[in-house]
Amino acid sequence: MQIHGFQKLTLVDFPGRVAAILFTGACNFRCPFCQNAALVLHPDTEPVVDPDEIFSYLRKRKGMLDGVVVTGGEPTIQDDLLPFLSSLKELGYAVKLDTNGYRPRVLAEAVEKGLVDHLAMDVKNSLSSYGRTVGIAGFDTGPIKESISYLLSGHVPYEFRTTVVHELHDEKDFEEISEMCAGAQEYYLQTFSDTGDIIGENLTPPSPEDMERYIKILRKTIGNVSLRDR
User: Which residues are CB-neighbours of 66 under 8 A, at least 6 positions away?
Assistant: First the structure.
């Protein structure tokens, strides 16, 4: 596993857990609003964290920490993701996996082998707007639909989330998303913020009024919809 970032404590990224966060490098998407541009576009230039350092820390913090979040980049494109998750589980940690959902078979295998306890999938946009939102022309949305369907079946605790960008999202998109994710356990909207390390340019956040409208649309089919600070 290529780990390029190690946050030793988070109280907010893993529901109900005191956790550490591991950031993998590289991604198969090019979302213009991505806030980890260097990690996605040029992972080879980013420092690498020695796995021995990670596991040494986790062994020492057992009892104080009880969870590990594996995020990215996109973790599911790492060839040794599943053995790595297994090693975390062997230490007794609960594992949360963050994913863009484009490798549904990896996602399903991790769940069915008992390697993840919570899964967060970024739903980038409605299927009709997915290509421009992930920065890939002619994007095949089939894997996205497959991952959403799998999670909706309730195999593992999960959440869907969307980072909302004024130039990329509108009410029509959220009407489509509400149909696609109807019955979801939890759905979070996050307001885009330009941190200075994003892939695209000239992007702005939606207004608070827009966010309230989008939340109301999602609540037509999803019981638990909330606004989450990034």
Answer: 17, 18, 19, 93, 94
Which residue's structure tokens are 């207004």? 207
Residue 65 to residue 28: CA distance in whole angstroms: 31
Question: Over the stretch 43-65, which tens digit does the pLDDT of each residue have?
Answer: 888 899 999 999 999 999 999 99
At residue 154, the 3 state secondary structure works out as: coil
Helices (H) and strands (E) in the chain, counts: 8, 8
92 half-sphere exposure, CB direction, 13 A CA radius = 9
The Cα 104–Cα 150 span in angstroms is: 8
Query: Can you give the pTM of this predicted structure?
Result: 0.96
Task: Tell me the fold of 3-228.
Answer: TIM Barrel (3.20.20)
Query: What are 98-154's pLDDT values in tens digits?
Result: 999 999 999 999 999 999 999 999 999 999 999 999 999 999 999 999 999 999 999
DSSP 86: H
User: What does the domain layout of the chain look like in residue ranges?
Assistant: 3-228
Listed residue (176, 169, 179, 184) closest to 120, CA to CA: 184
The DSSP annotation for 162-183 comes to EEE-TTT--HHHHHHHHHHTTT
Q: What's the CA gap between 151 and 77, in Å, rounded?
A: 19
Residue type, 207: S
Sign of the dihedral through C-alpha 4, 229, 107, 145: negative
